[in-house]
Amino acid sequence: MADLRLEIENLHEVVPDNALEQIKPDVLGAQKALEDHTGAGNDFHGWLDLPTRRNLELDDIKKAADTIRSEGKYLICIGIGGSYLGAQATISALGKQIPCHNTNETQIFFAGHNMSSQYLTELIKTVDWSSTWINVISKSGTTTEPGLAFRILYDQLVKKVGKHEANRRVIATTDKSRGALKRMATENGFQTFVVPDDVGGRFSVLTAVGLLPIAAAGINIDKLLTGAYKMREICRNNDLYKNPALRYAALRNILYRQDKSIEILANFEPALHSIGEWWKQLFGESEGKAGKGIFPVTVDLSTDLHSMGQMIQEGMRHIFETFMIIEDAPTQLTIPHWKDDYDGFNYLAGKTLHFVNQKAYEGTAQAHKQGGCPNMTIFLPELSEFYLGQLFYFFEYAVAISGYVLGVNPFDQPGVEAYKSNMFRLLGKTGF
Ligand code: PA5
């Protein structure tokens, strides 16, 4: 079975072979610091072995997901940042692209990632509360956005089904012993799952944080973990040419040292949009420190070629691009032949839409390279649980290495607190 692979042909002109050799000691040093747990933030290295930890509460997660699926028409997942992006990315990549209300599947909604009253009001009106479950996810248990959403939605649930039944339908994913959410869960008898102490939010997709909503959406979490496990094995390799995560981390830093300070992650499949959102948090929060870091941006192509294409092709030359390409399409549509050929597309008749999409990628990659936007491509053989598992682990490993090479601690996020202090002061919270 083929694995995720990294293609770097469109980098050759800006990254000569000796550049990889030159940065190799830094990269291997970073890998050693990660694998030996001697690098900064080593108390948050727990994600490294998540695919191999067999005590992942897996059976309980599957049982809870089965109950939700058999009893619940709706599951509302409340969380922000790392507490929802991984689940949302997986579910929107593998679930239905066009929402369908007549489905028998449990529909997953997300809340607590904004403070919009319009969003929450519409959500409250959309779900059938007699058949709704809530998974509230917060490692700290004190984050404002999910905290407020939970207050409002829990009250709705209690109002509709009574406190006893509401408590049976709330699952809290949080710290094993600390925090407000843990205390409330214990006092009200919510089922709980644990965010491990040594796993930060943005690295938590393969814990109950991601796995419970993903399983509740009917996605096979064993296959997701198997894919991550395979990538974990690949990432043990200290050969830059055999370990795509090391190579990706190395190349990003080589480009950064050439003043390429913005990375665009580009996809040609709408299903990958939310993977980009997850990636932005992972790389932005891990690397943006001490006045350093590559600014992560995402585009959905070919859509955004008609909005951002001009800027990428001819704007300031401080960007590089990473394409995420799915090689195989699960469904094939063939372009029909029209006798009158009004639009002049008969030259494509008989070809599949996927074939045209692939050519659009190839043409774009060439054009951007020629325009001074060097690029590389991550190829996934197909869009499946197995390859998403590989992709998540690949990016997590790469950002850890990349952050160490950059000289920052990739596992903390002190800057996230700044807006909170101001907001709390403006809201009149005691102590601010
Ligand atoms: O990566 C992180 O640690 C953060 O993005 C958190 O996931 C996010 O702030 C949510 O925190 P919590 O799960 O404590 O509510």
Description:
α10 crosses α14. The protein has 15 helices and ten strands. β9, α13 and β10 form a beta-alpha-beta unit. The chain folds into two domains: 228 residues, Rossmann fold (3-Layer(aba) Sandwich), CATH 3.40.50.10490; 172 residues, Glucose-6-phosphate isomerase like protein, domain 1 (Rossmann fold). It starts with a strand and ends in a 5-residue tail after the last helix. By secondary structure, it is an alpha/beta fold. A five-stranded mixed sheet has the order 1-10-9-7-8, with helices on both faces. The chain has a five-stranded parallel sheet with strand order 3-2-4-5-6, with helices on both faces. The longest helix is centred in the last third of the chain and has 22 residues. The model has no long low-confidence stretch (mean pLDDT 95). 5-phosphoarabinonic acid binds next to loops.
Structural topology:
Layout: E1 5-7, H1 17-35, H2 58-71, E2 74-78, H3 85-94, E3 107-111, H4 117-126, E4 132-137, H5 144-161, H6 163-168, E5 170-174, H7 180-188, E6 191-194, H8 208-216, H9 221-235, H10 244-257, E7 262-267, H11 273-287, E8 295-300, H12 309-314, E9 319-326, H13 353-370, E10 375-380, H14 385-406, H15 417-427
Parallel strand pairs: 2-3, 2-4, 4-5, 5-6, 7-8, 7-9, 9-10
Antiparallel strand pairs: 1-10
Bound molecules: 5-phosphoarabinonic acid.
